[in-house]
Amino acid sequence: MRLILGSASPYRAQLLRRLGLHFEQVPSRIDETPRRGEDPTAYVVRLAIAKAKAAAPLDEPALIVGSDQAAVLDGEILGKARTFERAVAQLRRASGRRIDFLTGLALINNATGTLQSDIIPARAYFRRLSEASIKRYVEHERPFDCAGSIKVEGLGIVLLQRLEGDDPTALIGLPLIRLTAMLASEGIQLP
């Protein structure tokens, strides 16, 4: 059965390659705007499911993976910075504080109609950051496409005091521990 990653993210594709499975990457262009009053947990699950559905082929059976992440500070979804100025502002706000990263994960078997979904949380505790260190980080790492403007798999790790969570890959955007369990329930055995 085909395995499809419904995402344009190079970070998610890199993580999925770790499992040694052949897969196709199909960008799923959906509106990622949070709905009015939408809780961050509902938001990430909704987007993960929508991304998987958008990438599902109509002509043959497949397992389709969708995932989305939100960085949440004081109940507010930070989103992707997209610009240098917004990345600096996000990290300035995060300085000395905790950001909750919520990763929504969905696996759809379009042959059976089975949908599995989950939310995998992680917490990042930031050091107190100087304005100069924030700007150096943003100039070097350019984390404009990352939730909360941090790439923990890269130089972003130096911004942190500690991390909490059951799956370190959730912070990068694709929780492999939970995904392998979902795949196993569909008959995909790893390794």
Portion of residues within helices: 25-40%
Cα distance spanning the termini: 17 Å
How many strands, which pairing sense, and closed or not: the largest β-sheet? 7 strands, mixed
The general outline is: elongated
Overall strand count: 7
Tally the structural domains: 1
What is the rounded Rg?
Answer: 17 Å
Structural class: alpha/beta
Task: Please tally the helical runs, counting DSSP H or I stretches of 4 or more residues.
Answer: 5
Q: What letter string, H or E per element, gives the SSE order?
A: EHEHEEHEEHEH
Describe the protein's topology.
Elements: E1 2-5, H1 10-17, E2 24-25, H2 40-55, E3 62-73, E4 76-77, H3 84-94, E5 98-109, E6 114-126, H4 131-141, E7 160-165, H5 176-185
Parallel strand pairs: 1-2, 1-3
Antiparallel strand pairs: 3-4, 3-5, 5-6, 6-7
Q: Can you characterise this structure?
A:
Strands 1, 2, 3, 4, 5, 6 and 7 form a 7-stranded mixed beta sheet that branches. Strand 5 (98-109) and strand 6 form a beta hairpin. The mean pLDDT is 95. The longest helix is centred in the first third of the chain and has 16 residues, at 40-55. The protein is α/β, with parallel strands linked by helices and 191 residues long. It has helices at 10-17, 40-55, 84-94, 131-141, 176-185, and strands spanning 2-5, 24-25, 62-73, 76-77, 98-109, 114-126, 160-165.
